[in-house]
């Protein structure tokens, strides 16, 4: 039997707000770093006299390192306590950021980005689990919205901030800017985050070494195979097939191992709960809906409309605004009426926005696209928080860290799958546009049509995501009265 830190669930609003600030800062550094780095790819190529095939590992190495780190997060939270693990992971991310800022070659930058990823991979799931444990069932939706804010706003703010730093300061500052935020969140964590460790059967949690040796490489192989498919523009390339098969074989091996182990790295029994299984499915499928606008629209604005990356990033602002408004409303509503109706409406709104994008042309009104982005963003914002609420509904406190690990793995795999599918579809759809133009340039109308065809895939996956969403809980959480103790009445979040 496992016991996890309990007092935080009865923490007062003031303590929760301070804890939320720690978590928000941690999420910001991870999410903004990824989007700002994407903007700097061309600058890396120029400064290091490198090639796109080499520099792409700045992003791929970071992604793979994050993927390798995620599976151990649940166990590490139980073994070392949230505060110690948070401090360690943010410190690793901080050191990686400083070293990346001083990188002298493409190879050194790639190595330091991998170090960043090893720390960054655990930051978001720790934040998600800590806040879920502290919130309790009655205010879970409102507080889970905090987790979603960095992920929703980073695609909008990252390119703008990154573009400004690269243009007017130096690309090195997209890494150095992390330093003060990391130091602040570490200091606040030691004041407001719990340091209590979980006890399993009278002892500290043991590490499932075999599970880790199977699951981490499995996730990394699948993510790399999907990333390679996106770069190659096909799922039929030999390397893509090899990595995907290796990943699937390792995943099957992990499942067989986990079903026999008493303390598996990832508790597969969680998927017996209909709400958790449905939430994991929606998280995976909604990745392609989210990435549709984040990946395709900036490319459309640059390749078809001829805008700069900075202007393309600014035109994504309506999506961020729609998300921000919906996050606030959806978080509160999910605590009152349950996740299912909100997620269904959210997916429907996201699909409505995608339907407009299927009709894009070379001269489509930017006002129309902005309205569609706002609608799509509102839908994604509305769906994101209730899905997380649904995942935690009915779970015991001690189950939350490993449940969070599972959900985060599905998010990571869903994002990689989305990027690969969209890249492959767009490359095939735009092949004819490359030969239809004059002077060696793609024909804008044909290229716009290729983007429209790709958005039909986004729309299709949105429709499929509605099916598991129907299985989410449809009512408010059961009222629970936490035990009142002197410690709970004072309710300090830190221990």
Automatic annotation (TrEMBL):
Ranges where the record places region Disordered: 475-495
Matching InterPro entries: EmrB-like, MFS, MFS_dom, MFS_trans_sf
Localization: Cell membrane
Biased composition (Low complexity): 486-495
Matches recorded under Gene3D superfamilies: MFS general substrate transporter like domains, Multidrug resistance protein D
Domain annotation Major facilitator superfamily (MFS) profile: ranges: 19-480
GO MF annotations in UniProt: transmembrane transporter activity
Domain of life: Bacteria
Entries under Pfam families matching the protein: MFS_1
NCBIfam families: efflux_EmrB
Cited PANTHER family: MAJOR FACILITATOR SUPERFAMILY (PTHR23501), TRANSPORT PROTEIN HSRA-RELATED (PTHR23501:SF1)
Entry protein name: Multidrug MFS (Major facilitator superfamily) transporter
């Amino acid at each position: 039997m496992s016991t996890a830190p309990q007092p935080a669930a009865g923490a007062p609003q003031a303590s929760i707000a301070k804890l939320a600030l720690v978590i928000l800062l941690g999420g910001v550094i991870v999410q903004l770093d990824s989007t700002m780095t994407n903007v700097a790819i061309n600058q890396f190529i120029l400064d290091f006299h490198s090639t796109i095939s080499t520099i792409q590992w700045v992003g791929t190495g970071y992604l793979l390192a994050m993927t390798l780190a995620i599976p151990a997060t649940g166990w590490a939270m139980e073994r070392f306590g949230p505060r110690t693990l948070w401090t360690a992971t943010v410190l690793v991310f901080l050191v990686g950021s400083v070293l990346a800022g001083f990188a002298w070659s493409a190879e050194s930058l790639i190595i330091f980005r991998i170090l960043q990823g090893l720390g960054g991979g655990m930051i978001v799931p720790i934040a998600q689990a800590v806040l879920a444990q502290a919130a309790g069932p009655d205010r879970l939706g409102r507080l889970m919205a905090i987790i979603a804010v960095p992920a929703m706003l980073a695609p909008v703010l990252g390119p703008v901030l990154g573009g400004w730093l690269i243009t007017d300061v130096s690309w090195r500052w997209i890494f150095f800017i992390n330093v003060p935020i990391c130091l602040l969140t570490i200091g606040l964590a030691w004041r407001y985050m719990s340091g209590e460790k979980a006890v399993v059967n009278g002892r500290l949690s043991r590490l499932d070494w075999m599970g880790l040796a199977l699951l981490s490489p499995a996730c990394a192989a699948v993510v790399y195979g999907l990333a390679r498919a996106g770069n190659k523009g096909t799922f039929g390339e030999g390397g893509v097939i090899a990595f995907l098969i290796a990943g699937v074989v390792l995943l099957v091996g992990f499942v067989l191992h986990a079903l026999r182990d008493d303390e598996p790295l990832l508790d597969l029994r969680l998927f017996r709960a209909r709400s958790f299984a449905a939430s994991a499915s929606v998280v995976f499928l909604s990745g392609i809906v989210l990435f549709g606008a984040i990946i395709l629209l900036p490319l459309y604005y640059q390749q078809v409309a001829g805008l700069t990356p900075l202007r393309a990033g600014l035109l994504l602002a309506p999506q961020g605004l729609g998300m921000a408004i919906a996050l606030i409303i959806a978080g509160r509503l999910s605590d009152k009426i349950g996740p299912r109706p909100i997620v269904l409406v959210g997916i429907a709104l996201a699909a409505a926005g995608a339907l407009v994008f299927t009709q894009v042309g070379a001269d489509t009104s930017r006002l129309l696209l902005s309205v569609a982005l706002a609608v799509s963003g509102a839908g994604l914002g509305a769906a994101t928080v209730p899905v997380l609420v649904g995942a935690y509904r009915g779970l015991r406190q001690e189950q939350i860290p490993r449940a969070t690990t599972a959900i985060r793995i599905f998010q990571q795999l869903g994002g990689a799958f989305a990027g690969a599918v969209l890249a492959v579809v767009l490359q095939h759809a735009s092949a004819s546009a490359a030969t239809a133009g004059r002077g060696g340039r793609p024909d804008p109308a044909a290229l716009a049509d290729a983007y429209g065809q790709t958005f039909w895939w986004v729309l299709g996956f949105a429709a499929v995501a509605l099916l598991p969403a129907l299985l989410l809980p449809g009512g408010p959480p059961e009222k629970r009265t936490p035990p009142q103790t002197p410690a709970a009445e004072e309710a300090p979040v830190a221990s």
